[in-house]
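About this split. The held-out portion is used to measure sequence recovery: a designer receives only the structure tokens and must propose an amino acid at every position. Recovery is the fraction of positions where the proposal matches the reference. Here is one held-out target exactly as it appears in the evaluation file.
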């Protein structure tokens, strides 16, 4: 991995991959990766956590419009698993973002302690629990950025979510690395060739052959 490239100022240091990798739905795509995903850590076994009360999901999530339709197709079954009726699941405003399939997205609403899809009387994601209870593949319904967290894709660059870099995520600096915690999800969405390249970059980073400056993000105010 020679001649790594400095990243956009607000995303920290990243290096280019050999080629772009995309999901089966055409987005998100990944062209660069932040080496710090191979060294930053978090408490990955989420449902074993006894101290966070699902604060990782307190802001809701961006969802592409096709994914919104897939979620709404399960509205009746999902209702006991989530914090509000289907009419209150999504904000009205849609926005353009090339990191989503179709380049259009909408945000889930925040109800009570966080994302409307948190279980109201138990830990964890209601969509995920509903799918497991009913023999449905969670990846077919759950938003991609929920599955990838605490990684995210921003302008085609695979980076830690802002909560990791600013350390507002309560479970950072313990447990497994961001990459190892999300490796299975990256494999599912992007395929074996990306994982092979990331494994190679991981080894180069841990072996000191790739620069890995950790990132101090600029001040950020949540909307």
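Reference sequence for scoring:
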């Amino acid at each position: 991995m020679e001649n790594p490239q400095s990243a956009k100022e607000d995303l920290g240091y990243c290096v280019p991959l050999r080629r772009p990798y995309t999901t089966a739905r055409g987005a998100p795509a990944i062209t660069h990766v932040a080496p710090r995903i191979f060294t930053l850590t978090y408490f990955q076994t989420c449902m074993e956590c006894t101290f966070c009360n699902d604060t990782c999901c307190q802001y809701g999530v961006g969802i592409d419009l096709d994914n919104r339709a897939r979620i709404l197709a399960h509205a009746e079954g999902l209702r006991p698993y989530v914090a509000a009726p289907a009419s209150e699941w999504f904000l009205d405003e849609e926005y353009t973002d090339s990191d989503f399939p179709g380049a259009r997205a909408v945000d889930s609403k925040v109800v009570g302690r966080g994302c409307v899809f948190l279980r109201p009387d138990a830990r964890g994601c209601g969509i995920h629990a509903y799918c497991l209870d009913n023999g449905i593949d969670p990846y077919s319904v759950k938003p991609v950025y929920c599955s990838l967290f605490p990684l995210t894709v921003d302008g085609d660059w695979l980076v830690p979510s802002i909560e990791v870099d600013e350390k507002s995520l309560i479970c950072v600096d313990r447990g497994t690395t961001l990459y190892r915690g999300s490796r299975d999800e990256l494999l599912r969405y992007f395929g074996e060739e990306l994982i092979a390249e990331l494994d190679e970059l991981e080894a180069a980073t841990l072996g000191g052959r790739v620069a890995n400056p950790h990132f101090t993000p600029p001040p950020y105010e949540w909307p």
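Annotator remark: Residues 1-7 have pLDDT under 50 and may be disordered.
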